[in-house]
Each structure stands twice: as structure tokens, then as C-alpha cells.
Amino acid sequence: MEWTIFLLFCLSAILFGLSMLQRDRSKDVEKQLENLSIQLMKEMHQLEKKVNDLEAENTVLTTKKMIAK
């Protein structure tokens, strides 16, 4: 009976230690996901700026062509 309690206590300590390691992994994954999200938002912002610049350039060129006629 004493051995059973001792073994169950050791098993619970091991499982507790493993659960602590898994929490660290989830934090790493969460941080990676956050970094990826930030990176994608920056790229989207840059693409939006480029599209706006191209639209403005197209408007200017169209206006120049209309004036030239």
C-alpha cells in the first residue's frame, strides 16, 4: 500500500513537470503567431501604399493624356 502511494506520488510529480514544459511550448507558438501576424500586417500596409501610389500615378497619366488631346 505504501509503495502504491509512493509510485502514484512520483507519477504525479513527473506529469506535473511535463505539463509545465508544455506551457512553455504554447507560449513560444503564441509568440511566433503574433510575430507572423505583425509581419503580415506590415506587408499588407506596404502593398496598400503601393496600390495607392500606382492609382495616383495612373490618375496623373490619364489627366495628362486628356489634356494633350
Features of the shown structure:
69 residues, mainly alpha, 1 helix, rod-shaped
Structure description:
The protein has 69 residues and is mainly alpha-helical. It has one helix and no strands. The longest helix has 67 residues, at 2-68. The mean pLDDT is 91.
Which structural class is indicated by helix and strand composition? mainly alpha
The stretches of 5 or more residues where confidence is low (pLDDT under 50) are none
Count of β-strands: 0
| Helix content class | over 70%
In DSSP terms (H or I, runs of 4 or more residues), the helix count works out at 1
The arrangement of helices and strands along the chain is: H
Q: Roughly what is the average pLDDT, rounded to an integer?
A: 91
Main sheet makeup: none
Distance between the termini: 101 Å
Shape field:
rod-shaped
Summarize the structure.
This protein is mainly α and 69 residues long. The model has no long low-confidence stretch (mean pLDDT 91).
